[in-house]
Amino acid sequence: MKHVNNWEIFNEDVDNKSPKSHVGFLEEVINTLSKIHSNIIQFGSASKDQQLFIEDLNKLVSKYGTKNLGKVNESLSDTEHHKYYDWDKKNQDLAIEFRRSVKDNNITKTRQIVKDNPDIIYCRRNHAFKQAVENESSDMLKYLLSVDKELGGNLTEKEIDEIISFISVRKDNSRTELSNIIDNYKKLMINEGKSSRVKARSTDPFKQTFLNLTEYTIPYGNETDLEKYLPSGYKKDSIGNYYIEVGKSETLFTTHLDTYCEKKEKVKHVISGDIIKTDGTTILGGDNKLGMTILLYMIEKGVPGTYFFFLGEEPILSGGLWGSQNTLKSNPDFFKKFKRAVAFDRKEKGSVVRRQKGRYCCSEEFAEALSNELTNLGVDSAPDPNAYYTDTATFLDIIPECTNISAGGWKEHFKEEWVDLGYTKQVAEAACKVDWENLPTERKVNYFQPKYKVEPRHRFVNREVIKGVKEVLNRYDLLHTNNLEFDTYNTDTLVFNTWFEEKNIKVTILDDILLQIEGYDDVKFGLNELKKLNLYLGNIFGVDINPNDYKMLSYKDGRVSILGSVFNDIDEYLEHFDKINSDDTSFVIKKGGDQYKEYYGSVVPKELVLKWFHDNIA
Which position has the higher pLDDT, 305 or 160? Predict the structure, then answer.
């Protein structure tokens, strides 16, 4: 008998419905649970899966006690490894049938069973593979290995080595052939980076957590699929976000549960040490499962803080920052107690973000102090003024110090995405040692207070004008940075900024549109003059036309070619362009054909196209 956490693992015949003996205070547990989950003991032969499951079970017994086995049984389905043992009677009978078909070397019957139940090949770990060796059946071994490959290479390298050892002690004539089959399979799996059954187990719990969280892509609306990985005791706010409070703290830690995708898909991990990517058919979801992994680690270590797991941060389906913005709108007073908001959602390495959504999100003193602490803890870091946003940006006007820290991910949102989980773990370990509560708090905020009693004149009348103004300014990467998106209609003035520079562009909308840009004279436009506003901004900030999109070619003799049409020189083309377009169109070669468009798809006015050619080509 093999002991694991004071449990005895029994090697049982698969047809025996109860364990042969019991141990100490766990006798009642095993008796009761074996009636419900008899296969827990029957199918085990001290495999790693079973050991891990028994450890989970032991924790539940310790938590609820032997007198509350109903609660233990109810909680079994939430354990990480239950699915390898929590079979119903039908599946138990199927497993018995499968083992017999392998033992009888009946490949036809085995194929029939495996067709609809491919995971069954792992029942009673390695039994089927070893049985194929025992039968000297190279065909059965090849078939079982082919199923394993189709499932993503779920045999661990250690398990493959066990099968190799089982073959090596044989003295029959089949030894060489069987050895070649399994040796070649091992090399194939290693070359493809699939030599570990990482979903089932990992020697590193931190890595296992990340692999669990990225088993599937999680589009907005599917975040509840991750509830099972949240720590016990979590709460849900009125929006559906999850949070847990650990100790007393003025620090808010955030992550988001959704990934940048439109549908839920199975992720096929490709692993090489600490480097994890996919097979290229899906994104990985390191954004922001890296941050979630770090937060779960910090919670486990008891780091004081309020930990929020937000819904719908990615813009692809929710519009972006959906969970955080809506929970702040519903309960702003809850967040006033925090002095700092921290996410681990920044790409690559070494960043402590100072700027989000076109605004400074934390003070220089805070960013420097945090960077120094991380660096001293082994994670080289520095303030970063060139970031976009994550959920902590939602709280810029209610929490003084808001930042985002690099978590070790590259090429997020793309199928080429990959992560360095070794770096991620370094960040997590350092985060457990940072003195969060004593970091400086220097940035000043003006708490948002909705103006319910005094409503600006334009609030309802000019709603479409406000929308149009925002669309125009966004074309030039001028980001709307009012306190909050939902505060837009509670003020007469919209504030815009560039992503990475302080410009402080103000647009006040009352009876007209007043545009104020630092370094320029104030200028006014009528409420129906958005086209003029667009031309004015375009002449200041310019437009971006990609020559490759229009197949622009220049020849040594001065000729130019655009969309396949050749002109003697650029002046001839511009004369042609001027003739076929009105002020509001920009047909490239012929009326009714392709037009010049900016990044977001809006047609670039003729005047701005001519300006672009003057600035870049002529």
Answer: 305
